[in-house]
Design a protein that fits this description.
Blueprint lengths: L1 E3 L6 E6 L6 E3 L2 E3 L5 E6 L6 E4 L2 E3 L3 E4 L2 E4 L2 E3 L4 E3 L4 E4 L14 E2 L2 E2 L4 E4 L3 E4 L16
Parallel strand pairs: 2-5, 3-6, 4-7, 5-8, 6-9, 7-10
Antiparallel strand pairs: 1-2, 11-12, 13-14, 15-16
């Protein structure tokens, strides 16, 4: 089971419980305004793969069994407009070109192939140079 909470800055970002090899990939976890835990994996659960994410703010990135790879933890990841929930990257972001393809897991390619387009769509996710961390690939 994976569940997102909508509370801002008060506790848990993503709860992972009772899954086999759960990936948490290419996300933006924003703890505004105060800390907390971004990803919590229940003890006794197989290790989750937590890769290519942006942990924005002062929270604890991961608690529990996890394989952690190519994540960015920073107070200012240089989002286009964090207050308006626009998590695309601006020029100079530490998340640009900072991640890597995570390969296959249980027969499923975990390389991001699409990204969100408001209000309820998606588009093919381009790769410009190396893969960017987070939910969006930055376009120069």
């Amino acid at each position: 089971m994976a569940r997102w909470t909508t509370a801002r800055g008060c506790g848990l970002g993503l709860l992972i419980a009772g899954m086999l090899t759960t990936p948490t990939l290419g996300g933006v976890l924003d703890d505004r305004p105060a800390g907390g835990t971004f990803v919590f994996v229940n003890p006794g659960t197989p290790a989750a793969l937590v890769a290519n994410n942006i942990f924005a703010g002062s929270g604890t990135p991961v608690v529990g069994p996890a394989t952690i790879s190519h994540n960015i933890a920073t107070d200012d990841p240089l989002f286009v407009n964090r207050k308006q929930l626009d998590y695309r990257l601006r020029a100079g972001s530490p998340a640009a070109d900072a991640c890597t393809a995570t390969g296959m897991r249980r027969g499923f390619d975990l390389t991001p192939s699409a990204q969100y387009v408001a209000p309820a769509g998606e588009e093919r996710r381009p790769v410009v140079r190396a893969l960017d961390c987070g939910a969006f690939e930055r376009r120069p």
